[in-house]
Design goal:
Layout: H1 5-10, H2 34-52, H3 61-76, H4 79-108, H5 114-133
Amino acid sequence: MCRNAISRSLGPTGYSRRVTQQQPPPYVPGCADAGAQVARLREVLALIDELAGRARRGPQDDMLDDAARLSSAYDHALPIDQKRFDAFASETGRWATAGVQTLLKLDEGGFPVRAAATRLAEELEKALRRLSQRLPG
């Protein structure tokens, strides 16, 4: 008589029944460059603006100053603040990238994208403002 008949039937035969858990990659505070993260998001915004038919913004001194301020504030921030900034920047980058990819596919298919691109640009601008306010300093 098998006492453990249920658990034996759950997994594929021939494999170890041990449960393994993968560890998330270690977080190393202070290794990211906040100014570069924001600059990349601004490049995505420029592409979205182009799809929306909005006027392109050239490099501006205040954007460079903002990137320098963010990098300095990031370097002096507490590790928890750095981690929150990185998480928000990553999340913003993911949805902005997904939005751009969708817009590009729609545009290639001949569908109108201006209204959607305008809305995505507005949301990314809001996220960039929130990101700039995430770090003290």
